[in-house]
Design goal:
With 293 residues, this protein is of the alpha/beta class. Helices cover 44% and strands 11% of the residues.
């Protein structure tokens, strides 16, 4: 199977040989830039992403899929908003995946995200994704009881089967022109606690907090083990994972924007060129419009 490498060189790129170790990853990274400089760098990346997205749309050969996974309060929503703030909404679509609906449970676990994949020429964003089925469901395997699987799953094999299915699915997408970039926003347990406190102390932020957030915090180690396995198994040159330090939001947003910008700029995008007859017609139309003046 010959697949194009789309990973960008970065200190936060997870190894693609299965050797990834989450315990070795940092949640805070010193960029050497102050907050003002970070915002300036982010604006530069946002402009580059917007320019590349226009050419991506005109070229109409590639789709780009950005996958965001993280623990609660890591900053997925704000990062997506900031990084894609300059993109034409007509060329971008954001899909968020929470608890599957009754209709979605009538299909296999990859169906609902497959139905939301971006068209050629567009950027698609998954705020949570098909990986929920090997993260949340793995931590809470009782969820499988409601999935109406045809046979009782083997608890020693189901997660490997699902990860293999995800890897094969992403390889298929990559072969057919979807450029996949996956981000794990790596927030520390201490920073998550501070952000939860901030939400509860600010009346305008309390809507972001639920008792479920606190309950899931109690499964931290299980989630880290699930992320470790998922990233190690599915980080590939054509569908890379980037593990981004998320304790400092300005740094995190710039790092994500920089990777997205470099990925887009690495694609062999081209502006459509008219044939000779069409180009000659353009000159005629141009002369006609100038004559009206």
């Amino acid at each position: 199977m010959n697949l194009n490498t789309t990973s960008i060189d970065s200190p936060f790129l997870a190894p693609t040989d299965g050797s990834f170790a989450l315990a070795q990853q940092t949640t805070r990274w010193d960029s050497g830039l102050d907050k003002k400089s970070l915002k300036k760098q982010l604006r530069h990346c946002v402009r580059e992403i917007a320019t590349c997205q226009e050419q991506l749309y005109a070229d109409d050969r590639y789709a780009v899929l950005l996958v965001f996974q993280a623990m609660d309060a890591a900053g997925k929503d704000s990062t997506i908003q900031k990084v894609l703030s300059g993109v034409n909404p007509a060329g971008c679509q954001v899909s968020s995946f929470g608890k599957p609906s009754a209709g979605e449970l009538e299909h296999d676990f990859l169906w609902r995200t497959t139905a939301a994949l971006p068209q050629r020429g567009r950027i698609g964003v998954f705020n949570r994704s098909h990986y929920e089925e090997v993260l949340v469901v793995r931590v809470h395997p009782g969820i499988l009881d409601g999935q109406r699987l045809p046979t009782l799953p083997d608890p020693t094999q189901i997660w490997r089967h699902r990860l293999d299915a995800i890897a094969a699915h992403e390889a298929h997408l990559a072969q057919n022109g979807t450029v996949i970039v996956k981000f794990f926003l790596n927030v520390s347990q201490d920073e998550q606690r501070a952000r939860f406190i901030d939400r509860l102390e600010e009346p305008d932020k309390r809507w972001k907090f639920s008792s479920g957030d606190l309950r899931e915090r109690g499964y931290w180690e299980q989630y880290m083990a699930a992320y470790q396995d998922a990233i190690a198994t599915t980080s590939k040159p054509w569908a890379p994972w980037y593990v981004i330090p998320a304790d400092d939001k300005p740094t995190m947003r710039w790092l994500v924007a920089d990777i997205v910008s470099k990925t887009l700029r690495s694609l062999p995008l081209r502006w459509p060129q008219p044939d000779a007859d069409t180009a000659a017609s353009f000159e005629t139309y141009l002369a006609q419009l100038r004559a009206e003046g």
